[in-house]
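A.,

Following up on our hallway conversation. Structure tokens first:
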């Protein structure tokens, strides 16, 4: 069992003992998503794969929050935000925009990238370094702004 999955399981037990229903619900959703992927792929996930499941859940929650806000469903926004707080406990600390920009500048210097045609090379290099530490959509946007 991966360390992250073990930590999530331990936190579920703590939430059960504390009778914290909201946290317990969110943790069970995380474990359910992890188990679903393990069953679908017939493997036991390592920490990076568990992290990708958690990041996908974070992205889903953010999308739901924005859609619920547009529909003026504040009650559902509150539920999604509470779940997002719990889910974010299992993601690594996110890099600031300045740190991401520095990493992009270094990657541009390392690869000799000079135009948008080199974006694939840059994204490949940056994904291995920044995955899990920042939203790759933000990285893509920053690269586009540097070349435009």
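Then the amino acids I'd put at each of the 148 positions:
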């Amino acid at each position: 069992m991966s360390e992250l999955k073990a930590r999530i399981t331990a936190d579920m037990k703590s939430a059960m003992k504390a009778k914290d229903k909201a946290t317990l619900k969110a943790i069970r959703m995380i474990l359910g998503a992890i188990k679903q992927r393990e069953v679908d792929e017939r493997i036991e996930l390592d920490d990076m794969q568990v992290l990708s499941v958690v990041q996908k859940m974070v992205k889903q929650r953010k999308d739901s929050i924005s859609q619920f806000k547009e529909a003026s469903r504040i009650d559902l926004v509150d539920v999604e935000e509470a779940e997002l707080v719990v889910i974010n406990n299992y993601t690594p600390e996110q890099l600031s925009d300045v740190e991401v920009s520095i990493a992009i500048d270094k990657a541009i210097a390392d690869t000799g990238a000079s135009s948008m045609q080199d974006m694939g090379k840059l994204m490949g290099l940056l994904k291995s370094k920044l995955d899990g530490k920042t939203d790759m959509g933000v990285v893509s946007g920053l690269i586009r702004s540097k070349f435009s």
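The two ends are 45 Å apart (CA to CA). Curious whether your intuition agrees with the design.

B.
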